[in-house]
Design goal:
Layout (H helix, E strand, L loop, with lengths): L9 E3 L2 E5 L4 E12 L2 E12 L23 E14 L2 E11 L4 E5 L3 E4 L2 E4 L2 E5 L4 E5 L3 E4 L6
Antiparallel strand pairs: 1-3, 2-3, 3-4, 4-5, 5-6, 6-7, 6-8, 7-10, 8-9, 9-12, 10-11
Length: about 150
C-alpha cells in the first residue's frame, strides 16, 4: 500500500496576486505551470486552494495564519491562449479547468488536441491525464494523418 510520491507544482509568471481571504492566487503574463510531465501555458492562471480546517485547533495561531506549504490545490483555471503538453500529447484552447485530485482537464473555447498523428477538435474536451484518454462532447472532428505506404 505504498503512497504515490507527491509531485510539486511550480508556477512562474510576470505577476502574482494572492488572496488568503478568497483562498486563491492569480498569475498573469507568460504563465507556465509544471507538474511532473504536465506543462500548461496561459495568459492568466487562477489557483483555487482547498479550505483547510486546522487539524489541531489548539495549535492554530491567534491570527489564523497558515504556512504556504499547507495550502492544497483544489483546482486551477487557465484563460487566454492555453497550451497544454504532456508527453507526446498537446492541446490548445481559450479556457481550461484542471482538477488536481482527479487529474482531469476540461477544455472549452475551441479546444484542439494532437496525439501521434491525430488532430481532434470539438466544443468541449475532457482529458483524463492518468488514463491518457480524452472525451469530446457536442460534436467532434478528427483528422488522422495518412502514413507513408511503401
Amino acid at each position: 500500500m505504498g503512497e504515490e510520491p507527491k509531485v510539486s507544482t511550480v508556477i512562474t509568471s510576470n505577476t502574482m496576486t494572492a488572496s488568503s481571504e478568497k483562498n486563491l492566487a492569480i498569475f498573469q503574463g507568460s504563465v507556465k505551470m509544471v507538474q511532473g510531465e504536465l506543462v500548461v501555458h496561459s495568459d492568466v492562471m487562477i489557483v483555487y486552494f482547498k479550505e483547510k480546517a486546522p487539524s489541531n485547533p489548539s495549535a492554530a495561531t491567534a491570527s489564523g495564519a497558515k504556512s504556504e506549504s499547507g495550502n492544497e490545490i483544489n483546482y486551477i483555471e487557465a484563460k487566454g491562449k492555453v497550451r497544454i503538453e504532456k508527453g507526446e500529447s498537446r492541446a490548445t484552447s481559450q479556457h481550461a479547468l484542471y482538477y488536481k485530485a482527479e487529474e482531469k482537464v476540461i477544455l472549452t473555447g475551441s479546444p484542439v488536441a494532437w496525439q501521434t498523428g491525430t488532430r481532434i477538435s470539438g466544443p468541449k474536451m475532457t482529458m483524463f491525464l492518468k488514463e491518457n484518454r480524452s472525451v469530446v462532447e457536442g460534436g467532434t472532428r478528427v483528422i488522422i494523418e495518412g502514413s507513408e505506404q511503401n
